[in-house]
Amino acid sequence: MQKKNKLMLAAAVGMVAVVVATTAVRCTIAHTASEGEGARPAAEAALEEPAADGGEDATTEAGEADEAGETLARLRGGSWVAADGSGKTLAFRDGAFVESDGASASLTAFGVEGAGSSEGQRWLDVRMLRSGDAGAASATLILEEGEAGASVASDGFLLSDRYVEAPAAAGGVEVTGLADSYLALVGGDGDGLERAIGEWARSNAPTAGEASFDGEVFLDTAAGRVSATFHLDDAASTIIAVSYEGGEFSVAG
What we know:
The protein is an alpha+beta fold.
């Protein structure tokens, strides 16, 4: 039990380190932008402090913020692989994207400065800061959707100039490697577990066809919560945390 507690503590510390690193990068972007430009990005200002007079500028900024939100949601909902067939992957999260070549990963935090669209194409002007860089830089993300599928390109990507959307897995997500002891802790509801993971994957990791249980379980007896980690086989090798509380499953990635 002592060994297991140490393992769980190590995992928790690792997760906190990622959150702290991402937050630090975002704070640096905000600080750099305020020093270099003297104002917040228009889309950010529209989201946080809409103008009270309802004038034309306020309407334009609000529309731009809505467009930025829709584009970001589309990017987060896709699984992206390098167009050159190298197997490199791209995954969008809140305020950041992660590129991976399978052996290592690069985290880039960003803030939206502007957004727009034309037929079949959307773009975001962003201020970004890559983990390890000394200062922020400007870049543009271009999302194209057509009969051949969707792609996203940017002069700010590190591993590939362009990524294409990987096709969604057919038939939902199969949960593998479950231990009887874990199933007993979640009321034996294997079907409910699979449904919860499948619903989350449809919006966040559509290429995933399998979720494998890693064998580690955390019990919060005070809250009556059972938490476990699963590894998805999508292009980004997503890791999700599944909690069971009050007879219901919830998934976070």
